[in-house]
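Board notes (copied after class):
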Amino acid sequence: MSGHIRIVNDPVELVPLLITFNSAYHKQIYDLLNKSWMTEEELSEQVGGTGISQCLQVLRKGNLIEEQWRMPAQGKKPVKEFRATYSKFRANFQCNFSDLADLLYIAIANEEPLHEVVTRVEQEIFAGNSSISDIARKFNVSPVFIKGLAKRIPHLDVKGQGLVLIERTE
């Protein structure tokens, strides 16, 4: 385990952290990666089930894991292995309660109420509107709400003042 400290300067960065630690499955995988380097296959053997790739994607978005290539045995292909990056946490931000309430809602709400908003935001991006401010104004929500939503959805991310679709992996 590394001795790095995760410093959060933007409250939006709380969303992937809360999503990770609000799920027993995600937390179990994080705990395993906190102990040693592991491949997807090794994680699957330890926790069983499916969804390892999606969990790793959430951990990547939260900048909670690092990855490297494992040198294979003779004649085999290299595979990626992962481990937790941080062992400590520090928050260094200030925000209004309205933004904090939005971020907490986004992080802990089940996906049903957010599905319609996500679909509408994706339609805006496909139509060529990726501006966080424009999308927030159009849906009558705060820009922090839109950024938080992008941090929750695995195939959306924030780049500067806009949203981008990232490749879906599975």
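Comment from the instructor: The helical segments are 14-21, 24-35, 40-47, 52-61, 97-108, 111-126, 132-139, 143-152. The two ends are 27 Å apart (CA to CA).
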